[in-house]
Design a protein that fits this description.
Two copies of one chain form a homodimer. Helix content of chain A is 32%, strand content 23%. The first copy, chain A, is α+β, with helices and mostly antiparallel strands. In chain A, strand 6 and strand 7 (173-180) form a beta hairpin. Chain A has helices at 54-63, 83-103, 127-142, 148-154, 204-217, 248-268, 287-299, 301-308, 314-321, 384-390; strands spanning 13-18, 30-35, 41-46, 70-74, 113-117, 163-169, 173-180, 193-198, 233-238, 276-284, 334-337, 340-344, 347-348, 361-367, 373-380. Chain A contains ten helices and 15 strands. A six-stranded mixed sheet of chain A has the order 13-12-11-14-10-15. Chain A has a five-stranded mixed sheet with strand order 3-9-8-7-6, sandwiched between helices. In chain A, strands 1-2-4-5 form a four-stranded mixed sheet. In chain A, helix 1 crosses helix 2 (83-103), helix 2 (83-103) runs parallel beside helix 3 (127-142) and helix 5 crosses helix 6. Chain A folds into two domains: 13-268, 4-Layer Sandwich (L-amino peptidase D-ALA esterase/amidase), CATH 3.60.70; 276-390, ArgJ beta chain, C-terminal domain (Ubiquitin-like (UB roll)). Chains A and B meet through helix 8, helix 9, strand 13 and helix 10 of A and helix 8, helix 9, strand 13 and helix 10 of B.
C-alpha cells in the first residue's frame, strides 16, 4: 500500500479540489470525485446519529439505487441542523454538479451525485460560492485532472495532513481512498468523510458487503471522543475499468486493508493527540462484548488523561472496565501496558507503577477471564491540546 | 439548611478526624462517625461498578443487618484491587474499631462497623498506621468530641473544601451529612463517600427507602466524568435520639434536601471545574429517557470543552443528543442556553452564536418534543485544570 495516491489511483476516476471561498481562510474547500465508468456501482455507510445533516439525508436516498457517478464534498460548513432550506441547498448542489457534468458531455442526473459536507453545525452554506465552485471544479476536471491529493486536501477541517492510500492488487485491480476526520461513529465535531474508489468489477451488493465488513472492523473501532457526528459518511465507488472481478473475499480483504490504513492515519492526526493508544480486550465472552469493554476503557476520561501524563495508573483501567455492561471475572482481570503485566488477578504487580509510557504509542491489553473473544479499539489520549482546540472552535 | 454543621448536627452522634500518617502529606486522613443511640438503624447505597473495593464488599455485608454503630473512613488509599489481603485489612480495621469502642465501654462487634476508603486504586494500606490511628481516634472520641467538620476534612482527597450540611426540621429532628468527591455513580477517581446521620426514629426499611429515593435524584444525577468509582458509598445512620418519628414523606423530603445540597457542593468543587453546568431535558417520553439524554449531553467531551470556552456551540448539543438511545423528534428539538433559545425546531436562531456564557453557571435546556417527562443532570466543563489534575495524580 502507498499513501501518495488516493481516490485517483484506480483506473476510471478523476478528482480534484479547489478553493470556492466557503472557508474564510481561503484554503481549498470543495472536492469532486468523478467515476468515468464503465460501471457506476456504489455503496455507502452513514452516521447512526438521529440528528442527520442534509447531505447525509440526500446521499442515503441516492445510494438506494446502488449507483453513483460523482461525489461532491465541501469543508467549511456541515449543513447540519439547517432545516428544509439546508436540504434544498444540498439538492441544488447535486443538481448543479449533474448539470455541469451533462454540459461537459456526460449525461448525469442529480440522483447519481452524492453530497458530503463537514464543518460547523448550524449554519447555512454560502450557496452562491458553492454553485460557482461547482462550475469551476467540473471545468477543471474536464481538463483531464486526476488530482486525488487535491481532493483529499480540500475536505480537511481540523486535520493537519491529507489522508489517502492506495492498494494495488497483484491481479491488476486497485482500491484507493481518501478520508478526513478523527473517527467513524465516534467523533462529534470531527466528522469523518471518506471516499473509496476501485476499478474492480463489482456489483453494488458486493461493494456494500465489503464496505460494511470493513467499516465495522475499522472506522467503528476508532473512538477519539465517544460521540458521533451528524455528517459521517463513507462511500465506495467502482468503475470496473480494470475489467477484473475479484472474489468477495478478495474485495473484503482489500477494503479492510484500505480502511484500516485510513483509520490509522486519522488516529495519528486526531485533535490534540500526543499518544496513539490501542486498547485490546481479550478473554471476553463474545467479540461484541470485547468491543464494548474496549470502548468503555477507550472513552474513559481518567484513563485518557493518565495516558497523556504517561502515568501507568492501571487502577483507572479496572475502574473503567468494571462499569462495562459485559461479563467479566472481577477477581481475575489482567492488565498490561505495552506488554508489561501491571495487574494480574485484579491485583497490582511489583514494578507496575514504574512502567515507561513516555513513547507516542501505548498498547493497553485487558483480559476479562471469561471467554476467548478479543477486539481492539483505537483511541488517543486526552490532552491540553484537545481541550484547547475544542474550547475555541466556532468562535 | 446550614453548611457549618454535618454528621454531628443530629443528637446522638460523635465524630472526628485525625492525621494517622496514611497520607504522605501529613494531612488528616482518618475519620470516625459514632452513633450513641438509642437506635442503631442504618442503610447504604454503593457503587454499581463490578470491580468493588474491599471496604465496599465489607460494608455491603455489614448493612444486610440494617444496623450500624460506627463508620470508619480513610483517605490516602482506596484499598481497591488489593485482593484477599486487602479484604483482610478492611476486616481487621473494623475489628480494631469494635475492640476500641468496647474497651471504652460500648460493647460493639465488627459487624456493626462500616468501612470506607478513598484514594489511589491498587495499593495496600499501611495497616500499622491505620490500626494505631484507630486507637487514637476512638480515644479522642471518648473524650467527648463532636467534630463533624474534622471528620469531613479527614476524608478529602482532591477536594479543596470539606462538604457538610444540616437540616433542622421544625418538628425537632435533624438530618446532617458530610461528603467528599465529585459524583456518585459517575466519578472514577474522585470516589464519592458520604455519611448522613439523623436523630429521627426510623426503621432500617424507612431509612433505606428515603436514601434510595434521594440518591436516585441527586448523586445519581451528578456526572462529572462519566465513570464510577470502585469505592462509592453513601451511608445513613439514625440514632433516634430526638424521639420523634417523622412520616416517610417527611423523611424522604429531608434526605432529598440534604443529598441535593451535598451534590451541589461536590459539583462546585469538582476537579478542574470552571463552570457549573445543569443539563435539563424536557419533552422526553419518560423520566428515565430524560435522564439518559441529559447524561449523554453532560458526558460529551465536545459539549464540555465548548462550555469551558464559553462557546454557545449548540450544534454539539444536537450532535450529542442525537446519539442518545431515546425517542426524540429530530426535526423539532429545541435548545436553550441560560434561557435563551439558540435552536428551535432543530435550526439555529438569530443571535444564537452571541449568547453570553462567560458566567460560572450555565443552564442547558433541551426539549425532545415527544412527551412531557423531564430530568436534570448536574455536570461541569472539561477544562485544562481537569486534564492537569488527572494526568499527574498517582505519580
Amino acid at each position: 500500500m502507498v499513501r501518495t495516491q488516493g481516490v485517483t489511483a484506480p483506473a476510471g476516476f478523476r478528482a480534484t479540489g479547489i478553493a470556492a471561498g466557503i472557508k474564510a481562510s481561503g484554503a481549498t474547500d470543495l472536492a469532486l470525485v468523478f467515476n468515468e465508468g464503465p460501471d457506476y456501482a456504489a455503496a455507502g455507510v452513514f452516521t447512526r446519529n438521529k440528528v442527520q445533516a442534509a447531505p447525509v439525508l440526500w446521499s442515503q436516498q441516492v445510494l438506494t439505487t446502488g449507483r453513483l457517478r460523482a461525489v461532491i464534498l465541501n469543508s467549511g460548513g456541515a449543513n447540519a441542523c439547517t432545516g428544509p432550506g439546508g436540504f434544498q441547498d444540498t439538492h441544488a448542489t447535486a443538481e448543479a454538479v449533474a448539470a455541469a457534468l451533462s454540459d461537459w458531455g456526460t449525461e448525469t442526473g442529480a440522483i447519481e451525485v452524492a453530497v458530503c459536507s463537514t464543518g460547523l453545525i448550524g449554519d447555512r452554506l454560502p450557496m452562491n460560492k458553492v454553485l460557482a465552485g461547482v462550475s469551476e471544479i467540473v471545468h477543471e476536471l474536464a481538463g483531464g485532472l486526476t488530482g486525488g491529493e487535491e481532493a483529499a486536501r480540500a475536505i480537511m477541517t481540523t486535520d493537519t495532513v491529507p489522508k489517502q492510500v492506495a492498494l494495488h492488487h497483484p491481479d491488476k485491480w486497485t482500491v484507493g481512498g481518501m478520508a478526513k476526520g478523527a473517527g467513524m461513529l465516534a467523533p462529534s465535531l470531527a466528522t469523518m468523510l471518506c471516499v473509496i474508489t476501485t476499478d474492480a468489477v463489482a456489483a453494488p451488493e458486493a461493494l456494500d458487503r465489503a464496505l460494511r465488513h470493513a467499516a465495522a472492523r475499522t472506522f467503528d473501532r476508532l473512538d477519539v471522543d465517544g460521540a458521533s457526528s451528524t455528517n459521517d459518511t463513507v462511500l465506495l465507488l467502482s468503475s470496473g475499468a480494470s475489467e477484473i472481478t475479484p472474489t468477495q473475499d478478495e474485495l473484503d480483504a482489500a477494503l479492510l486493508a484500505v480502511c484500516d490504513d485510513l483509520c490509522a492515519q486519522m488516529q495519528a492526526d486526531a485533535e490534540g493527540v500526543t499518544k496513539r493508544v490501542a486498547v485490546t480486550v481479550t478473554g471476553a465472552a463474545t467479540e461484541d462484548e470485547a468491543v464494548v469493554a474496549a470502548r468503555v476503557i477507550a472513552r474513559d476520561s481518567l484513563v485518557k488523561t493518565a495516558l497523556f501524563g504517561s502515568d501507568p495508573n492501571w487502577g483507572r483501567v479496572l475502574a473503567a472496565v468494571g462499569m462495562a455492561p459485559v461479563a467479566l471475572n472481577a477477581d481475575r482481570i489482567t492488565v498490561a501496558f505495552n506488554g508489561f503485566p501491571v495487574c494480574v488477578d485484579s491485583v497490582g504487580t511489583p514494578g507496575a507503577r514504574e512502567v515507561d509510557l513516555s513513547g507516542e504509542d501505548i498498547v493497553v491489553t485487558v483480559d476479562l477471564a471469561v471467554g476467548a473473544a478479543t477486539a481492539t479499539i483505537r483511541t488517543t489520549d486526552l490532552s491540553h491540546g484537545y481541550v484547547e482546540e475544542n474550547s475555541a472552535y466556532s468562535s
